[in-house]
Structure formats: C-alpha cells, structure tokens
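Lab notes, practical 5.
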Amino acid sequence: MNKEELHRMLHPIKLIGLGGNQTLAEKVAAILQQPLLETAVHHFSDGEIQVQVSESVRGCDVFVIQSIQDPVNENFMELMITLDALTRASAHKIIPVIPYMAYSRSDTKTRSREPITAKLVANLIQLNAIDSIIALDLHASQIQGFYNVPVDHLHALPILAQYFLDSGIAHKSSDDVVVVSPDHAGTKLARTMAQYFDAPIAIVDQRGARYDDEVHDMIGDVQGKTCIIIDDLIDTGTRLASSTNSVMKAGAVKVYAAATHALLSHGAVKRLNQLPLQQIVVTDTIKKNDYPDRLVRLSVDRLLARGIDYVYNDRSIHEIFDEQNRLY
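Output from the prediction step:
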C-alpha cells in the first residue's frame, strides 16, 4: 500500500455543497466521482440558520464548496456555521472552497474611518479550525496575506483566454485585437490576458463617477481594432458600459467583454443588454436566475475539481498553473 492509498483509507475525502452555488458544487463532485454529503440547512422564521451534516466526518478531509454570493451575508453565515459543525464533528481537515469571495473589494483603507472588510472576513473564517482555503480570482492577490493558513489561489483567466482562441475571436500574434483594461487598477490583469494573444493593451482613463453613457479618453490605440475588455467581475455593469462606450468612440469595430465573476446586480442585465457588445464571456462561479443576452458562461468545475484533488493528495498547485499556461 503506497502513501496515497494509506491516506485515502485513513482520511477519506468528503464533499459538501452549500446553497451559494449548488449547481457548480454538483458538477465538481461529478468530476471527482464523489457524492455530496447530504447537508440539511434550515432557516428559522427570524432568519437564524441551522446546519445538520447527515453522516459522520470524523477523521475525514472535508471540502466545503460555497460561493459567497447574493444573499451575501446569508451564504457567509451558512459557510461559517457549517465549518463550526465540522470542527465539532472531529473532521481531520477542513478546507473551504470559495469560487467567489464576497467583501474582497474592500482590501485597503482609502479614506478615514473606513474598514478593511476583506481582512475582517479572513479573521472571521479563521475563527474555525480550517486547514487551508481554495479560492478563485480574489479581487486582489494580496488578500492571501490576510490569512494565516495556506490559500491556494486559482485563476480562471486561462479558461477565458482559451475560449477566445478556440472561437477564433483572437489568435496568437494577432494585429487586430487589443485587450482593454476598464481602469488603471486593472492594467496587470489586461497585460496578463494580452500575453496569451501576443496582443497590445489599452486603458480606459476613467476618473470620477461612472455613468452608463460616460465616455473617457483612451490610453493606447483601438482604432479599427477588435477589443476585449477584461475585468475580474461585473457587478452593476456601469464600469463596463462606460468602457464600451469609450472604446467605441475611440474607433473600435467590435467589442467583447470578459470577467470571472458575474454578480449582475441592480439592473445590470438591462444595462448590459443595451450595450453594443458582441459577447460577454464569464464563468459560472455565481448562479443567477436572469442573464443578459449574448452571455457565454464557461464552467470552472474542472479547475476547482483539480484544485481539490491536488490539495487532497498533497500535490503542488503550481502544476495546474504550468498546464494552464500552455494554451493551444
């Protein structure tokens, strides 16, 4: 019996999928060929949450899949209560798998008397006896430093880039594609995306408040080009709207949008439907009941499943990054 077989016998893997994105959890479980533990989540009339795991997890390595999406606070408390239940049930290891980490946009103090909510959430999660975290596209990479346990930070950008290559929208060493950052803060993300196509980047010089019809100056040439606006998330859609209008005004012939997390809140669907976008390419980290037209959802199920498999079997997550960087 080798080391891996002994580990599986002593500490079998268990998966729990909570209500944040049950569909994604089921897809991940199917890939891993592991059933999701039956977990009863009950809401009392006053809003309190009760969680009951149906079978023993003593000595098991338990991965809890929960996207902290709308309703954010409810899903966050569901995760916290489940982690507490697993700690009290003597699980061997507890690893939250968080496709979307809410509150991660507040990762620094920019004004007086302002909280750093991403750090607060990290402190709260670590009140439980977790062993590590698997997260996907945090708003800022430095949030990993808010945790005192290992954070395996996965990235969906190669999945998005592969889609544009496979669909023929972009190809390597293309002269007619420009990757656009919607503001200065997203320049690093745009530069990383552009490396997959050997394409130039441009930046929307956004300043002050953003409105749907607002037009900004461009840094970089998009005249006569196909533009791919890349961001980590789409929330209300106002930043994407002003970015789209800006690149069209600057002479772009086609505009695509790409993002990992599609929050789509506060009229975003209607707003995005009014934009002259060819496609909006996102992942399925967040489940919504209504999506805009021309939306393409790519699944991160295989990426998360591989992350779970590698962590469970003590393999280096860096192997995933090496394979993702070899796009075809």
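Observations recorded by the TA: The two ends are 38 Å apart (CA to CA). The mean pLDDT is 92.
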